[in-house]
C-alpha cells in the first residue's frame, strides 16, 4: 500500500448560491500523477485550489500527510511550503528577476542559507532549461518560458506534491509542448502531481490515474487506458467525444 | 542587479537626509530678514562733567530725524527704508545739533527751516536742517547704504551719534515698473519663502509617504479563516482606525487642520514644525488611498502565488505586493508633491513664512497687491512646472510608466 499524500473526505464548497463541489472524496498517493479532466465549470480548479487551501472548503476534511488542513490551529504557511502550485496565468513576480522569483520563498519562508538557496534555484532553473534567463525580468519572457520558470519556482521549495492548474491553457499552441515536456520529465522522476488539464493526449500519456469531474462531483476514476477507451458513464463518453 | 541595488541605496540615503534636513530646518527658528541697526554714540570732543554728559545723552536719545513730507519721526531702524527727504532737528533745549551724511545722494542744507511737528501739547515749531535726497538708487541697484552722523554740542563738549541707513528705490507707479521693482527688491523674501515652501512640501510628502505605508497596511487587513481571535480583533481595529483617519483627513480642509493643531492644541510651539506635522498627516491620508488603489489593481494571482509558496500575509505584502504597488503609484505620489507645493500656501494661516505669506507681506509694504500676487503666481507656476518636468524625467529613467500593472497573462 502506497503512502497517502492527500486525503479528501466529503468536501463541499459553494460560491454563494452556486454549489461548486458536492461531496468530493479523493485520495492521492505518493509518486502518482493524477489528472483531473472535465468541462469548464465542473469544479476541477476549485478542487485543486482546496488542496492548498487557496479556497477554504465549506464542509469536509482535507489531510495532507495526515495533518488536517482544515483545522484552523494548523500553520497553513508551513504546510504550503510542501505543496507546490503552478497556475494557469503563471503569476510570476514581475518586480523580481527570474532567479529572485525562485529564491524569494526559500529565503523568506524556509530561512535557508543564501548560497545554498541560489545553488538550488539555479539547478531548478537548469532542469527546466531556463538557467540562461536567470537575470531577466519575467516581463521579457514568452508564455512558455514564464510557465517553466513558475515550475522551477515551485520546485525550489522541494515540495512533496505539485499542483498544476491548467498549466498550458494560457499558452500559444506552439509553446504548449515545451511546458508539457517539463511536466513529463518531472513525472518520470517520481514527483507526485495533480494536474488539471484540457490536454487529453497529455493526460493519456503522463497520468497514472485520471479523474473525470462533472458538475461538482467525481463521476469516474480510472487508469487512463480504461477511462479513455472504455468510459463507464454516459456523461464521460459525451465529454470525450466532444473534446476529440 | 548591482546597479539596481546601488540606485536603491542612493535613493534611501537621499530620503533619509531629506527628512533629517527637513526636521533640522523646521527646528531652526525663523530669523527676521531685516536686522535692526543700532545707532552708536561716543564722545568726540572735550571732557564733560557728569552733568553735561547727562544732558548730552538725553538729547541724543530724544532727538530723531523726521520724514520731511508727512512729519513722522524716523527711528534709527526706519532709516533703512529711506526714500524721501528728512527734517533734522537743530536744537534740543540748550544742546545744538549739526548733521553730516557720507553719501553724495543726499545734501544737508546749511540754512535752518521752520518745521512743525506734532507733540502731546499740539503742534510745535522747531528749526531743522533740510536733508534733500538728490538721487535714489535705480530699481536694479535696489538700495544704497549710508551713514548719518549727528553732533550734539553743549558746554564745550561734543557727543557724536551715528545712524546707519539705506536709501531705497521707490516703487514705480506703472505696472511693469512695479513688477520689476517687486521682483528685484524682494527677491530675497520670495526666495526664502520658496525654500520654506519646497522644504515643507518635500519633507511633508516623504514623511506622509512613510506614514501612508503604515496606514494602507492597516487599512487592507481583513481577518481570515486561520487567524486567532485576538489577531482578527486587532486586524479589524487597525482597519477601522485607518479608515477613520483617511476619512477625517481627506474630509476636512488643511487650513482647518492647521488652525486646529496650532491655535487649538498649540502643538510643538514652533509653527513651522506644526505645519510640517499637518502637511505630513494630510498627505499620508491621500497617499494611503493612492496606494490602496494600486494594491487593488495588482492581479490577485500575485497574492495566490505568494501564499501558495508559504509566504504569510504580511510577507506577501512586504515582498510581493508593496514593491509593485509602490512602484506603480510613484507618478501619483510625485503628483502629490506638486499639489503640496501649492497647498502649503494655506499654512500662512498659522504664521509660517512660506511663499504666499511672504507675498502678502510684500503686498502690504507698498499696498500694491496686483504686482505682488502676479509675481508669486509666476513663481508657483515655474516651481510646479519644473518639478513636474523633473518627475517625468525620473519616471522615464526608472521606467515607471512603461511597466504594466502586473496582469500576469
What does this entry show, briefly?
Chain A has 244 residues and is α/β, with parallel strands linked by helices. Chain A is built from nine helices and ten strands.
What would you note in describing this structure?
With 244 residues, chain A is α/β, with parallel strands linked by helices. Helix content of chain A is 36%, strand content 26%. Chain A has 9 helices and 10 strands. Chain A has helices spanning 44-50, 76-80, 98-108, 114-127, 143-155, 173-188, 200-206, 224-229, 234-243, and strands at residues 4-15, 18-29, 33-37, 59-64, 67-68, 83-86, 161-165, 192-196, 209-214, 217-222. In chain A, strand 1 (4-15) and strand 2 form a beta hairpin. Chain A is globular. The model of chain A has no long low-confidence stretch (mean pLDDT 89). With 409 residues, chain B is an alpha+beta fold. Chain B folds into 2 domains: 40-170, Immunoglobulin-like (Sandwich), CATH 2.60.40; 182-398, Orthogonal Bundle (MetI-like fold), CATH 1.10.3720.10. Helix content of chain B is 55%, strand content 17%. A 5-stranded antiparallel beta sheet of chain B has the order 1-9-8-5-4, with helices on one face. In chain B, helix 1 (2-27) packs across helix 4 (187-219). The longest helix of chain B is centred in the middle third of the chain and has 33 residues, at 187-219. Chain B is elongated, with a radius of gyration of 32 Å. The chains are: A alpha/beta (244), B alpha+beta (409). Chains A and B meet through helix 2, strand 6, helix 3 and helix 5 of A and helix 8 and helix 9 of B.
Amino acid at each position: 500500500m502506497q503512502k497517502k499524500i492527500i486525503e479528501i473526505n466529503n468536501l463541499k464548497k459553494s460560491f454563494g448560491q452556486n454549489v461548486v463541489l458536492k461531496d468530493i472524496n479523493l485520495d492521492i498517493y505518493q509518486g502518482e500523477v493524477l489528472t483531473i479532466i472535465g468541462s469548464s465549470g465542473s469544479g476541477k480548479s476549485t478542487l485543486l485550489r482546496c488542496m492548498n487551501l487557496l479556497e477554504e472548503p465549506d464542509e469536509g476534511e482535507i489531510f495532507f500527510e495526515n495533518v488536517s488542513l482544515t483545522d484552523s490551529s494548523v500553520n497553513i504557511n508551513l504546510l504550503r511550503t510542501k505543496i507546490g502550485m503552478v497556475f494557469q496565468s503563471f503569476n510570476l513576480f514581475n518586480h523580481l528577476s527570474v532567479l529572485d522569483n525562485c529564491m524569494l520563498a526559500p529565503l523568506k519562508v524556509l530561512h535557508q542559507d543564501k548560497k545554498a538557496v541560489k545553488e538550488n534555484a539555479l539547478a531548478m532553473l537548469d532542469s527546466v532549461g531556463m538557467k540562461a534567463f536567470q537575470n531577466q525580468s519575467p516581463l521579457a519572457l514568452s508564455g512558455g518560458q514564464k510557465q517553466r520558470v513558475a515550475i522551477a519556482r515551485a520546485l525550489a521549495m522541494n515540495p512533496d506534491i505539485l499542483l498544476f492548474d491548467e498549466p498550458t491553457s494560457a499558452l500559444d499552441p506552439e509553446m504548449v509542448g515545451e511546458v508539457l515536456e517539463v511536466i513529463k520529465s518531472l513525472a518520470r522522476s517520481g514527483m507526485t502531481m495533480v494536474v488539471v488539464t484540457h490536454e487529453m493526449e497529455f493526460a493519456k500519456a503522463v497520468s497514472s490515474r485520471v479523474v473525470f469531474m462533472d458538475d461538482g462531483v467525481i463521476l469516474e476514476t480510472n487508469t487512463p487506458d480504461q477511462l479513455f477507451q472504455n468510459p463507464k458513464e454516459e456523461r464521460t463518453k459525451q465529454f470525450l467525444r466532444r473534446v476529440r | 542587479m548591482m546597479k539596481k541595488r546601488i540606485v536603491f541605496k542612493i535613493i534611501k540615503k537621499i530620503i533619509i537626509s531629506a527628512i533629517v534636513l527637513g526636521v533640522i530646518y523646521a527646528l531652526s527658528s525663523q530669523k527676521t530678514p531685516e536686522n535692526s541697526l543700532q545707532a552708536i554714540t561716543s564722545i568726540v570732543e572735550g571732557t564733560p562733567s557728569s552733568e553735561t554728559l547727562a544732558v548730552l545723552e538725553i538729547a541724543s536719545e530724544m532727538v530723531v530725524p523726521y520724514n520731511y513730507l508727512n512729519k513722522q519721526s524716523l527711528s534709527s531702524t526706519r532709516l533703512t527704508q529711506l526714500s524721501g527727504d528728512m527734517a533734522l532737528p537743530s536744537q534740543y533745549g540748550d544742546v545744538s545739533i549739526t548733521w553730516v551724511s557720507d553719501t553724495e545722494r543726499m545734501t544737508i542744507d546749511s540754512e535752518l527751516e521752520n518745521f512743525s511737528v506734532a507733540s502731546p501739547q499740539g503742534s510745535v515749531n522747531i528749526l531743522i536742517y533740510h536733508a534733500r535726497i538728490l538721487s535714489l538708487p535705480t530699481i536694479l541697484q535696489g538700495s544704497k547704504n549710508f551713514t548719518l552722523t549727528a553732533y550734539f554740542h553743549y558746554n564745550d563738549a561734543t557727543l557724536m551719534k551715528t545712524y546707519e541707513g539705506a536709501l531705497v528705490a521707490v516703487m514705480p507707479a506703472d505696472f511693469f515698473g512695479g513688477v520689476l521693482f517687486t521682483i528685484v527688491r524682494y527677491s530675497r523674501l520670495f526666495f526664502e519663502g520658496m525654500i520654506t515652501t519646497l522644504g515643507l512640501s518635500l519633507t511633508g510628502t516623504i514623511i506622509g509617504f512613510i506614514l501612508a505605508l503604515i496606514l494602507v497596511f492597516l487599512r487592507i487587513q481583513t481577518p481570515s479563516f486561520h487567524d486567532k481571535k485576538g489577531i482578527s480583533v486587532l486586524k479589524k481595529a487597525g482597519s477601522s482606525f485607518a479608515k477613520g483617519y483617511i476619512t477625517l483627513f481627506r474630509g476636512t480642509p488643511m487650513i482647518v487642520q492647521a488652525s486646529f493643531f496650532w491655535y487649538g492644541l498649540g502643538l510643538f510651539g514652533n509653527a513651522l514644525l506644526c505645519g510640517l506635522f499637518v502637511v505630513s498627516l494630510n498627505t499620508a491620508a491621500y497617499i494611503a488611498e493612492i496606494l490602496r488603489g494600486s494594491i487593488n489593481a495588482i492581479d490577485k494571482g500575485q497574492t495566490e502565488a505568494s501564499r501558495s509558496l508559504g509566504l504569510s500575509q504580511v510577507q506577501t505584502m512586504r515582498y510581493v505586493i508593496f514593491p509593485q504597488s509602490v512602484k506603480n503609484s510613484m507618478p501619483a505620489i510625485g503628483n502629490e508633491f506638486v499639489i503640496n507645493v501649492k497647498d502649503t500656501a494655506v499654512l500662512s494661516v498659522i504664521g509660517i513664512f512660506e511663499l504666499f505669506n511672504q507675498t502678502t507681506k510684500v503686498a502690504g509694504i507698498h499696498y500694491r497687491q496686483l504686482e505682488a500676487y502676479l509675481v508669486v503666481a509666476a513663481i508657483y507656476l515655474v516651481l510646479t512646472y519644473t518639478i513636474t518636468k523633473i518627475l517625468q524625467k525620473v519616471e522615464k529613467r526608472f521606467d515607471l510608466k512603461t511597466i504594466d500593472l502586473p496582469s500576469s497573462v
